[in-house]
């Protein structure tokens, strides 16, 4: 008996997408209007080194996707589901393609849930694994922010540094509340075993409960998350170096995760505008111009687009059910 598909297109999704695109355009226009000259974004010594660093950034993005698939695999083990990393990698790049390239009314994570449902044989397990995988990322990013300030405490005196700390602390507070609700037996726990849409919430509860009962599972899950998020920060570092931006390593570690947290706010398309504006905000005290901050954000997005294109063949073929041991156990 197949489970109901949790991915129902809600009325009004098209105008929400249109609104996000408009907001992205407005924010980008604002950053561009404050840029003194586009030439500021071009490094003085642009050549083989610049190209090599940008290629390294793309390769780092690719490694990051592999690491994210690995992180997803570790989360699925909480539900006693074993899936090979290549299969999860395929789902991940398709999700990135939809989230970063295609102006779709559904997000990349929604696509991942739908595709992984066939792989694991359970839409509720797929849903819960993607939710928990995302949540682990929001544990790692604030930790990296704090690490950056610990490495170089003087960063606290830079303009707008408090914003990065506020974002990190706020994220941890919200994450704590979400995990409390998800792990509480009388809140999310009461939906476990239900047959309605609420069973998806119940499955998230079961995953959190598994972590609570077996804390040893937390180490590999958070460990893979930290490694993955570090690769995302490294991408920013390589792009800053390619643009010859005078941003110290500690500042990259402190501010890049804050940018990554801010860009997931559901107000723009693929974080466009928010990401670039945040970079301008955090890097201004390092004598980085608006044009350079804009270029850094767009180059990061461009690297992700290049990697996202690996999902085009799988997206074109579609998602076919797989007859696996996991599927037979969870149907």
Task: Provide the descriptors you would attach to this structure in a database record.
mainly alpha, 13 helices, disordered N terminus, disordered C terminus
Write the layout of secondary structure elements.
Layout: H1 13-33, H2 48-76, H3 85-100, H4 108-120, H5 123-151, H6 161-183, H7 199-213, H8 218-242, H9 249-262, H10 274-283, H11 290-308, H12 312-317, H13 325-330
Task: Report on the architecture of this protein.
The protein has one domain. The protein has 13 helices and no strands. The longest helix has 29 residues. The radius of gyration is 20 Å and the shape is globular. The N terminus and C terminus are likely disordered.
pLDDT < 50 stretches: 1-9, 323-331
Overall number of domains: 1
Tertiary shape = globular
The largest β sheet comes out as:
none
Q: Helical residue percent?
A: 55-70%
Summarize model confidence as the mean pLDDT: 80
Instruction: Estimate the strand proportion.
Output: under 5%
Question: H/E series, N to C?
Answer: HHHHHHHHHHHHH
Helix segment tally: 13
Supply the helix-strand structural class: mainly alpha
């Amino acid at each position: 008996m197949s489970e109901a598909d949790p991915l129902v297109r809600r009325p009004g999704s098209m105008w929400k997408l249109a609104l996000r695109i408009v907001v992205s355009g407005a924010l980008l226009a604002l950053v561009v209007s404050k840029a003194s000259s586009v030439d500021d974004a071009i490094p003085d010594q642009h050549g083989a080194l610049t190209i090599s660093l940008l290629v390294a950034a793309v390769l780092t993005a690719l490694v990051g996707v592999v690491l994210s698939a690995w992180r997803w695999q570790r989360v699925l083990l909480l539900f006693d589901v074993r899936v090979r990393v290549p299969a999860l990698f395929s789902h991940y790049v398709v999700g990135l393609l939809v989230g970063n390239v295609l102006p779709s009314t559904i997000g990349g994570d929604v696509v991942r849930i739908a595709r992984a449902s066939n792989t694991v044989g359970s839409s509720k397990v797929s849903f819960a694994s993607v939710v928990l995988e995302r949540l682990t990322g929001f544990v790692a990013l604030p930790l990296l922010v704090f690490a950056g300030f610990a490495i170089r405490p003087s960063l606290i005196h830079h303009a707008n540094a408090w914003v990065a700390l506020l974002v990190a602390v706020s994220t941890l507070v919200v994450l704590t509340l979400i995990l409390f609700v998800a792990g509480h037996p009388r809140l999310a726990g009461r939906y476990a075993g239900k047959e309605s849409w609420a069973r998806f919430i119940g499955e998230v509860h079961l995953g959190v409960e598994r972590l609570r009962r077996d804390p040893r599972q937390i180490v590999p899950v958070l460990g893979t998350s930290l490694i993955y998020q570090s690769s995302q920060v490294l991408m920013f570092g390589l792009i800053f170096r390619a643009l010859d931006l005078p941003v110290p390593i500690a500042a990259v570690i402190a501010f890049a995760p804050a940018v990554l947290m801010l860009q997931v706010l559901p107000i723009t398309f693929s974080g466009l505008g928010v990401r670039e504006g945040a970079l301008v905000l955090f890097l201004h005290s390092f004598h980085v111009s608006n044009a350079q901050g804009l270029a850094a954000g767009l180059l990061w997005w461009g690297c992700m687009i290049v990697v996202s294109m690996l999902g085009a063949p799988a997206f074109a073929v579609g998602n076919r059910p797989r007859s696996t041991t996991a599927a037979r156990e969870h149907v």
